[in-house]
Amino acid sequence: MLDPFPSSPAWLRDAVGPWALYFNLPTITDHIHEVILAFVFYQFIHSYLSPWLSPVLFPQHYPNFNKRTKLNWDVHVVSLVQSTVVCAAALWVLFTDKERKEMNAGERIYGYTGACGLIQALATGYFIYDLYISLVYVKMFGLGMVLHGVSALWVFALGFRPFVNYYTPVFILYELSSPFLNMHWFFDKVNMTGGKAQWYNGMALLSVFFSCRLVWGTWRSVHVYSDMWQALSQTWSATASSASTLDPININAHVFQIRDGNLCVDEACAKAQAEISKYSHYNAAGTPTWLVVTYILSNIVLNSLNYYWFSKMIETVLKRFRGPAAAPAKKEEKEGVKEEEKDVVLDAAAKLEQEHDGLLLGEKQKSSVLNSSTPNLVEDLRKRKVGPVPS
């Protein structure tokens, strides 16, 4: 499917083209305007829209935040908007990109569609914003956020070779849990900790996190590993054959299907069919081993973190049932069970927020950045439910 937005203006393509070829990222010339616009959009939300709109919507909270909390609030607003927009776009591409659905294993590694390129551009623009904020406020967020921004930007930029363009909307769906994680943070900041809204949001957070990051993410990771292994084996075979015949390596004949554009009913269809192999000559020599290793290691680290975070959530839930049980009256026991179930969800959601952001910000910044108004989310939840402890 073609990119629904117009291509980059000629002057911008000419300016970026030499750099794109130097870094072997040729498809970025088609999407550089989208990368820039995405960055400007996110930065506009952070610097202008959130500081202006937040006091209007939350007049009793936002104006009273300290500088650190206001910064974190604005960052979470951008994250909420970005994750919602990019996930909606990814789902749209998954369901409507016909050319993407028809790709074979080789095309899933080397092929290209403009719609998938758009998703890459939106994500790249956000990671540029994320890296910029991390550098500007490095004393506040720490080097962990800077390294995270560099790593995320580098991995997504590699997709402009093009490389695994097909899988861009697939793994963007990891972000489906981010809106719920951001909402959990907002509930704490507007004194809604422990309420029904946060409980329902926590239920959604745990369910979506498990579904999209563990089930969907692991299943699709196996697919991409399989496709990469096939592409790497193909490259090694072609390299060995080229060494014996002294011919230049060209794997395109074994990768791209022959498509009959005459079967299309309009010009857009014909262009979309031809677009799949539009950049095939840039990958004619196959896939470098370092690229596959880099991608797989990054994916394994990310998946491992997802399992680690979820294990912490489960650990939090189990702790609620391991303590010694008292013997209250039946009526009080029933009410206690309901409150216990509610607390389990909220505790697990709070644990996920702490572990998720704590690993990025560093243990030193975790308590002050994420919970500047409260020392501990779970303790704050309990204080709100039982009232202040008498001195």
From TrEMBL:
The record lists the membrane-crossing segments as: 35-54, 75-94, 109-129, 141-160, 166-187, 199-219, 290-310
Region annotated Disordered, chain positions: 357-391
Which Pfam families does the record match to this protein? Answer: TRAM_LAG1_CLN8 (PF03798)
> Which GO terms of type biological process are on file?
lipid homeostasis
Q: How does it sit in the membrane?
A: Multi-pass membrane protein
- Which portions of the chain have biased composition (kind: Polar residues)? 367-376
Q: Which InterPro entries match?
A: TLC-dom, TLCD
Q: What is its main location?
A: membrane
- Lineage: superkingdom: Eukaryota
Q: Which UniProt keywords apply?
A: Membrane, Transmembrane, Transmembrane helix
List residues of the TLC domain. 68-322
Q: List localization entries.
A: Membrane
A GO CC term attached to the entry: endoplasmic reticulum
Q: Could you tell me where the Basic and acidic residues compositional bias lies?
A: 357-366
Q: Which PANTHER family match?
A: CT120 PROTEIN, TOPOISOMERASE I DAMAGE AFFECTED PROTEIN 4
- The name of this protein is DUF887 domain protein
Q: Which organism does this record belong to?
A: Aspergillus ruber (strain CBS 135680)
> From which lineage does this chain's organism come?
Eukaryota, Fungi, Dikarya, Ascomycota, Pezizomycotina
